[in-house]
Amino acid sequence: MERGVKLLVWGLLFVLIDIRIVTLDLVHDGIGYILLYKGLNELPYSKWVSYAKGAAVILGLLSITEIFGFTTINLNETGQDVTWYVIIGGIVSILSLFFHMNLLSALQETVQDEDELQGSVSGFKTFYLIFNLILIMALPLILIFNDIVSVFLFAALIVGMIVEIVYIVKVNSFKGIVPPQDLAS
After folding, report:
1. Fewer beta carbons within 10 Å, N or C terminal of the chain?
2. What angle, rounded to 10 degrees, do the helices at 2-16 and 150-172 form?
3. Where are the membrane-spanning stretches (predicted)?
4. Using CA atoms, how far apart are residues 86 and 81, in angstroms rounded to an integer?
5. Torsion on CA atoms 30, 33, 39, 41, rounded to nearest 10
6. Is residue 115 in a domain?
7. In the chain, how many domains are there?
8. What are the pLDDT digits (tens) for 124-171?
9. Secondary structure E strands in 76-181
C-alpha cells in the first residue's frame, strides 16, 4: 500500500501544480491522473476505489484539452463562450470532487480499525466537500461580478491551496498503514 500512496501523492502534486508557457501546459494534469490511477490500483479493492478509478480516467481524458490552453477563460470576452467555460468547468469540478470523495472514502475504509485516524479523515472529508461545493457554486458569481469579488477570489485561491496541501499531507499519512486484509496474510 505504501507504493500506492506514494503514487497518489505524486499524482495529486502533478494535478495541483500548473506550470505554463503562454498557453502550453508543461506539467500536464494527465500525468497526474495516470499516477493517481496506478496508485489506486495498489490500494485494496473497494467500491470507492473503482469509482475513483473511473473518475480518474474521465478526468485524464478531459485534461487533454488543457495541453494547449483550450480551457482558458478570457474574462474580457462577452457572449456564450464564457458561459460554456463555466458550465464545463463546473462539470469537471464536480467530477473532480467525486474523485476526491471516493479516494478519501477508500482510504478511510482501510483504517476502519483505527478510530482516531478514521475520525480525522471523516472530519476532513466533510470539510473538503463543503469547502469545494461552496467554491463550485461561487465560481459563476465571481466571473459575473469580477471587480467586486476579486478580493474573495484571491482569498479563496490562498485557502484552496492550503486545503489542497493539507489534503496531500493527509493522503501521505497513509504510507505506513497496513490494510486489514494484508494483516491476515
Report:
1. C
2. 160
3. 7-28, 48-70, 82-107, 127-144, 151-169
4. 9
5. -100
6. yes
7. 1
8. 999 999 999 988 887 777 767 766 667 777 788 899 899 999 999 999
9. none
Asked whether 7 and 39 are in contact (CB, 8 A), the reply is yes
65 in Cβ contact with 30 (< 8 Å): no
Q: pTM of the entire structure? A: 0.82
Distance CA 36, CA 19 (A): 19
Asked whether residue 141 is assigned to any structural domain, the reply reads: yes
The boundaries of the domain holding residue 107 are 2-175
Rounded to a whole number of angstroms, the distance between the first and last alpha carbons of the chain is 14
The CA distance from 48 to 104, in Å, is: 8
| Any domain includes 61 | yes
Q: 24: alpha, beta or left, given left = phi > 0 and alpha = psi -120 to 50?
A: beta
